[in-house]
User: Which sequence fits this backbone?
């Protein structure tokens, strides 16, 4: 049983890497099997279809995000620190050449199954609720400058960073950093030098 769970975990790890680099349609079970040194049948044993596999990935992203939020809450992080931790996650995606899972499904929306699109939408809702709560709290405390409704600010922030990850693939990482610093400035956070690793 432990060996099977280990194989399942390794499949998810490789699939996550391929999914965020190449997209839903850009990888195959054969590629996963080759990377792991197993047969295709081993991948199909754990995930009979690609839909099953990507659903498992999206549910894992959601579980990880819930855990991450809980850690921030337990540490009593301020709204500013919560946002900076979120920005660090997005920067890591950019530095690793990855696209956010929401971006992957969004771009390929017409070619993915309805259940995959629905799970990605649920992940987007999770993120929007969290960002809205953080911005609302920061605005009330005077720690963040909120222009308009917090939910609208959260949407603008999500959209900007998603666009930054996509455009960085075409124009280079500086585009992502420019958009990130633009958002930080609008929120009244101290700006940083716009450079890789900022």
Assistant:
């Amino acid at each position: 049983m432990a060996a099977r769970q280990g194989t399942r975990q390794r499949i998810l790890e490789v699939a996550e890497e391929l999914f965020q680099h190449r997209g839903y349609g850009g990888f195959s079970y054969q590629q996963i099997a080759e990377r792991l040194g197993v047969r295709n049948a081993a991948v199909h044993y754990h995930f009979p279809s690609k839909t099953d596999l990507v659903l498992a990935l999206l549910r894992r992203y959601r579980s990880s995000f819930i855990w991450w939020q809980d850690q921030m809450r337990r540490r009593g992080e301020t709204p500013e620190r919560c946002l900076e931790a979120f920005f660090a996650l997005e920067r890591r995606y950019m530095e690793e050449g990855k696209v956010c899972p929401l971006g992957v499904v969004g771009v390929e929306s017409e070619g993915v199954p309805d259940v995959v699109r629905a799970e990605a939408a649920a992940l987007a809702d999770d993120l929007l609720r969290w960002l809205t709560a953080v911005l609302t709290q920061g605005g009330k405390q005077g720690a963040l400058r909120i222009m308009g409704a917090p939910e609208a600010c959260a949407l603008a922030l999500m959209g900007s960073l998603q666009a930054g990850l996509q455009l960085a693939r075409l124009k280079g990482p500086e585009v992502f950093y420019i958009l990130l610093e633009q958002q930080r400035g609008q929120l009244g956070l101290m700006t940083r030098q716009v450079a890789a690793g900022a």
